[in-house]
Design a protein that fits this description.
alpha/beta; 5 helices; globular
Length: 213
């Protein structure tokens, strides 16, 4: 994982995963209305303090509670307007939502696996491709940086399928809660910093990504 406190070049996309929830900590596939935990709220405030030092022009967020609350913290700190886009939602795990990882009979993240009543990988990627086009358009229209607050698997899809890595940047193995991934203006859209949680307290900034969903 890359760590840096430096601000990105103007016009970047600042890709953010939401703060921690109790379901993250307990390794449970979550429901849409799962709120941030007390720790997650603290993380969101630390993220907001970091981004308040950058020229943030606009914020776009998933409508799921954990992402929306994280984005609202950033909006208060930066004064940037917040827009909601439901296509930034986490992958739909259907009938598996509310189930602990340890109680699952199969790996819900395995290639080719489609959760009952949920989204396939192909469906998720197709949705992310559509929302990426809107994100790019909005970034080009924004005076300052565009913050995009979403979820772990959406971050993975966008970073691995729509962006390149800048020299010296390693591909992230996961995305920690409130992690910052900086995407330089493109094309090509290039990742200058991946999965950075330098804004969190030293005890939390371990680089270990929490369960993605």
């Amino acid at each position: 994982m890359s760590h840096s406190a430096a601000a990105p070049a103007r016009g970047a996309i600042v890709l953010v995963r939401h703060g921690e929830t109790d379901s993250n900590a307990a390794r449970i596939l979550q429901w849409p209305d799962t709120p941030l935990s007390a720790r997650g709220l603290a993380q969101a405030e630390q993220l907001a303090q970091r981004l308040a030092r950058w020229p943030i022009g606009r914020i776009l967020a998933s409508d799921y509670a954990r992402a929306r609350t994280t984005a609202e913290c950033v909006a208060r700190a930066t004064g940037a307007p917040l827009q909601i886009d439901p296509d930034l939602r986490e992958r739909n795990f259907g009938d598996l939502r509310g189930t602990a990882y340890k109680d699952l009979g199969s790996d819900p993240f395995a290639p080719g696996y489609t959760p009952p009543g949920g989204e396939s990988w192909e469906d998720l990627h197709a949705r992310c491709d559509l929302v990426w086009e809107r994100v790019v358009k909005l970034a080009r229209e924004t005076d300052g940086h565009l913050v995009v607050v979403t979820h772990g698997l959406v971050c993975r899809s966008l970073v691995t399928r729509r962006c390149e890595l800048a020299a010296g940047v390693e591909a992230p193995q996961g995305f920690g809660n409130t992690s910052v991934t900086l995407i330089e203006p493109g094309p090509p859209w290039r990742i200058a910093l991946a999965n950075c949680v330098a804004h969190l307290e030293a005890g939390q900034a371990t680089g270990r990504a929490a369960p993605v969903a």
